[in-house]
Design goal:
binds 2-oxoglutaric acid; Jelly Rolls; oxidoreductase; 4-stranded antiparallel beta sheet; metal ion binding; 8-stranded mixed beta sheet; binds fe (ii) ion; alpha+beta
Length: 354
């Protein structure tokens, strides 16, 4: 048999799925079509582009303006909003994190990632009736008090969170689970919005260096809703170990599954490896912005393989894990540069792709 050449391979594509039947009151047939399309995408690519999400374009424009206003500030000013170690909030300066350490593999170029970021999240005060750990559900850090940055990012946070919940409603149908199955795992979900800015001034670039905007990783939680500029950089790994550029269609949001969903489905659905490698043209990096809404589940939820996902006679690929343990190991890796030793399966995929 002849080896397959690149031209014979089906082109790598992130499927486009219209989720409007679940955002509005779609017919059972329309919902079933959406659920089937989501199931196909989750089994094969682990990334989806969604349309029909119902987010008003002005909310996305507000998010983009907030990102621009904040990251335009001088580095020394932004640094005052760095959170204490272990608190997943506030500012991250360029070259202070390594995402590949979240799955236990040091960056191939031995350099930290050059993205800068700002995180906000669900706080303990959002759930006054529950005694949630103050460190995980930490207060937000607002650079301008209750000013436009807070208003705009919180508006996006609410909408992205709504979309994440629509997605878990679809997931329950697509996986043949009872309606509302995810609710018990997500009613005080540990959600974080991470706004990323990829921009190094020309003087800061070593042209021949192997520059990494954000190292290869899988996302940690249930599902991520990603707003991104239509600028190259985001790359997704396929089954043959090749990286593919992914740009969202105009108006579409990217969605990708995290590790907890891969664990629940015993990898029937994928938590796909991705990274950000912006092209360097004439010594310049084209600026790229993104905002990832991580829907990570209740801190005290226990995640183990769903019935029917483990073939008879086989063991589940992963032991049960609490959201707390899983997320703590990942964040210690990426943010505190402590290699995560509990992600062997993911680490192996990274090493194979190198
Ligand atoms: O910038 C991007 O498009 C991806 C960001 C990402 O993967 C993340 O924040 O986990
Ligand atoms: Fe990611």
């Amino acid at each position: 048999m002849q080896p397959t050449t690149d031209t014979e391979r089906p082109r790598f594509q992130v499927p486009l799925v219209d989720i409007s039947p679940y955002v509005g009151d779609g017919s059972p047939a329309a919902r079933a079509r959406t659920a089937a399309a989501v199931d196909r995408a989750c089994r094969t690519v682990g990334f989806i582009q969604i349309t029909g999400h119902g987010i008003d374009p002005t909310v996305a424009e507000g998010l983009a303006a907030a990102i621009d206003d904040f990251f335009d500030l001088p580095l020394e000013v932004k640094k005052q909003w760095i959170a204490p170690p272990g608190i997943n909030r506030g500012y991250t300066a360029p070259k202070s994190e390594q995402l590949s350490l979240s799955l236990g593999v040091a960056a191939a170029n031995r350099m930290n990632d050059f993205f800068e970021a700002f995180n906000i999240g669900v706080t303990a005060a959002d759930h006054p009736g529950l005694d949630l750990p103050a460190g995980d559900y930490a207060d937000n850090i607002w650079p301008d008090g209750a000013g436009p940055f807070a208003a705009r990012t919180l508006a996006w946070f609410a909408e992205a969170g709504r979309v994440a919940r629509v997605l878990t409603t679809i997931f329950a149908d697509a996986l043949g689970l009872p309606a509302g199955w995810f609710d018990a795992f997500t009613d005080h979900s540990l959600d974080v919005l991470r706004m990323n800015n990829y921009a190094l001034p020309p003087g800061d670039i070593e042209l021949d260096a192997d520059l990494t905007g954000m190292g290869e990783h899988t996302d940690y939680g249930i599902v991520t809703v990603l707003w991104a500029d239509r600028v190259a950089g985001l790359q997704v790994l396929d089954d043959d170990g090749r990286w593919h550029d992914v740009l969202p269609e105009p108006g579409a949001l990217l969605v990708n599954l995290g590790d907890l969903t891969a664990r629940w489905t015993n990898e029937v659905w994928r938590s796909t490896l991705h990274r950000v490698k912006p092209p360097v043209v004439d010594g310049r990096i084209e600026r790229r912005r993104s905002a990832a809404y991580f829907h990570d589940g209740n801190i005290d939820a226990v995640v183990s393989a769903l019935p029917g996902t483990v073939p008879p006679g086989e063991e589940p690929l992963y032991p049960p894990v609490t959201v707390a343990e899983h997320i703590a190991g990942k964040l210690a890796g990426s943010r505190q540069l402590v290699r995560n030793t509990r992600a062997e399966r993911e680490a192996q995929r990274v090493i194979t792709a190198r």
